Amino acid sequence: MSGPGIHRRGWSLVATTLAALCVGLAFRRVFEAREVLLVTALSAIVPTLVVAACSGGPKRFVVDAERARATRPLWPSVILSALAWLLVVSGTLFRDRAVGYVVPTPDGVRDIGAAVINAPKSILTTVLPAPPDGELLVLVSVCVWVAAFASAELALRTATVSLPALPALLAVVVPVVLGVQGPGSNVTVMLAMIGAIGLLLLIRAPQRRPPMGTALVGAPIVVALACVAGLLGPDLPGTRDRRPPDLRDLVEQPPPQRLTGISPLDRISAWLMSPDQPMFSVAGPSAPDRHWRLTVLDRYDGSSWYPVRDLRATAGRVPDSPDGRPAVLTSVVDHVTLRDLGDIWLPASDRPTGVDAPDLRLRVDPASGVIASGSGLRSGTRYRIDARIPALDPDRLQYLPAAHDPANTVLPESDAVGRPIPALEALRAKAVLATSGSTFPYQQALRLAQWLRANHRYDISAVPGHSYRNLQFFLETSKEGTSEQFATAFAVMARTLNLPTRVVVGFSAGREGANGVREVRSGDVLAWPEVEFEGVGWVPFFPTPGQATDTGAHKQAPEQKAPANSTPAKPITRAEKDRQIAGQSRSGPAPDSETPRSSHRERTRWELFAAAGAGVAVVGYLVSAWLGPVLARRRRRRGGPREQVIGAWRQISEDLVGAGMRTSASLTVGDVADFGASRLPSEAADRLPELAALVNDIAYGGRTIDQADADAAWRDRAIVAGAVRRLDGRPRAHVRAGHRMRPSSVALVFRSPDRGRE
Amino acid sequence: MTQQLATSVNGNPPAEAPRFHAGDALRLFRECFRALGDNIERVVVGKRDVVDLALTALFAEGHLLVEDVPGTGKTTLARAISASIDASWHRIQFTPDLLPSDITGVSMFRQTTNTFEFLPGPVFAHVVIGDEINRASPKTQSAMLEVMEEGRITVDGITHEVPRPFIVIATQNPVDMSGTYPLPEAQLDRFLMRVTVGYPDLASEIAVASGAGGGATIESLPVIATARHIEEFVQVARHHVSAAEPVVDYAVRLARATRENAHTRLGAGPRGSVALVRAARVRAASHERGHILPEDVKALARPILTHRLLLAPDAELGGVTAADVLDEILDRVPVPQPTATKGHA
Asked: Is CATH 3.40.50.150 the classification given to domain B19-226?
């Protein structure tokens, strides 16, 4: 009889339950960890109990797998488990559709089935962590339940040692794949899973524990390789900017939904005409130069700009910008209370990282960070928003190239019947004129904004609209407009210069009340363009005069000097620096690669060197340990016949170590020969005494030999080596590997095998 | 020589010592050694290793201390050696009342010639068997010092040479120590080696008890070699066996290690390392080898060095024996490994 006994099979249910729990906890990157705990616990324990009850109680454990299959049918366990799962899911995730909060109605059963089918795709189209809806959490229950059920059945019904771990290993693939973009890490869960599987193996086959020697040799190597991989992996060529494979890239996203009928850009004039309407209030750090973004408009069809539409459901997390990661200036937390804002867009600072709005069904555009509510906004709605304010350094920006982003540089070139649009050429000509003399994109953008501010006037009564014709009228005729015209004109003109642009609609900081709460009114509405730069992402510009300066500071003229009473030690602002850059006749040469990230790069470089050095050391040691004996053997075959015979004997001594001979400096030639004679079969053993005598005669008797003796000695060595390899009961592979890993083996690479042993 | 040896084994002692040729010297040595060993083993059954050690001492011109409990064949061994050699031998029963002159001899006034005539004692023989040497008084024991080291005795200011070869085979009983005088270190050092006979194994003891092997007695042992043969073979071992420098170095390092060991109060002196190399030459010659090996040194280290060690009190209290100390030393001191470059001493 092989395999675990009945008691070990029973105890192995503990390990399978733990493995199933790990499957559920691996969903912590998909959902919030606390959301999956109850579902995971129930889904791991209940099926195990069902299986234990159906497939054999303590007295019914059967030792033989064949008998088990013959005597204990599987179907009762399957049916009971399915029913139990339905009740558990209905009572926990679909309580509102259950009779007595437990028993599912027929419609509830249909909903549960549909949820099981739709949950994977729904999760793949949701920003992680996903909302804790029952329709999504049902997937956790299914995975854990199936893993626990299958593992428990295999543990009880089969005699195999490791097969019961297979279902959990397969099931854990699901959360790992679904949680690729999720926050946090599953390393601890995976370690726990390995521990659970190890426990399973120990319970079912304690006699197969790895020998201590293997652990002692293998563990440091595994740890060293893991450290090297962890340090070097992220910096390997091609991996720094490459995202891990993500199933989301293959899943067809749901069609964009038109969430509102009115673009915020179209509402600017109306809001400006009634400027005292309260939009929202913000409790948070005082920041007079911050802006509140409502939405981003990145598509232009010649008549209108359209807001982003790749809105995905989220539980509150806003993923990082995929375009670039400028250094973070500060992290802020704001508490926003909505007033008459309406619509669906939630004001937030750029760039938000998370929203806590329990009453809203949140949507987020991962590219821009724009947040919307799928259910509309009502006055009085409160939410908390976390944001990281980026630090934009003009010194670095001024030499950066524009990003390669064709989608955000495209402009309609012809009208509906295919004729070229003359206004576009006029806009392009003015853009070239405005930016003449500029050498880098940032300077181009600054001069364009400066040109707009200098040659046009801010007027809230200007004609609204931002089509080509509107913009041409604004630039050539009226020269008056609101931030709607300034921002859109900037964006279109910049696109004619191949600068990727988009338009943002939002509000300036608002007025701070006595209680520290900033009240934002409709008159604070502001649109501004953003230009995308390589490696930094989107950078805002503020071309609207009077209403805002370069940095958008409210009610401050663009050319206004810094206050006279400002202290000399005050650091130069971006606006002041931008004016210097815009005023330069030519941008200076690009500085060296020293950037604000230089210190980070320096540190990364040192880590890289250290990791590379450690890796080279480890690999070098392993290669040397493998190569040393080979080189030593080759060296021993060199020289005259005497050296070759001595070398053959040394090689035999090393070969006999593989046969269990102790390595000691106190062994004589005779001792070695005696050991070989006692350990090896006669065809090899018979050769050792004669060869030992020859070696002694050479070494201590000055005997003269010829090449034939040397060749015979190496033939004897080959016979001995072959006998050692065929030897039963020779030291196991890990012991031989341990010998091979000794420093003395590595030293053979660098020195003669005879030196130091005389 | 082979023929002569064969004749000797058959009972007829050879008339005179042969003249060796260099090429045959080692072969003849081995044959003589084996023939002597086979001869002695007829009465000392199953103790070939002890017999070989005793013969090694004989051909190294060293003295042998046989130490064991009564009835293990100590005296038989000594007598068998003497019986196998056509040489003079005397046996001395050491007792507490034995006087030095009883050993060395006395000068007596002979009235007929009106002169003092020296009457040599029992020490004047090729083989001197000393039974229970530790029962003699220290004064008597010390009388053996000069003769054992220098091979001569001075009585009344006149030096008398003992015949060559000369070997003292002394026995002592380590168990019954009452009324005995343990040999001082100085005298122990003069023994080349100390061997222990030990009880025979079951088969050997049955063979002895049943008189198997023809019921050989010491008296019936044939003479294998003459004193002159032995003297010649002593010279063969001394001059025809070379000692490579690494091996001599190994022997010296072993002896030095006994002095540096934490468990010893007194280790083997230079006489020990010299004895080691000298005995190794004999062992090499007995294997018809013209050079000594580390194996020779290692095999002889225990009988040659053990009795020269004086253990520290802590070691004795801890149950450590001299044999343990030497085993540890043998396991720790590196053996010279064979190289293609040979050095001779």
From this structure: no
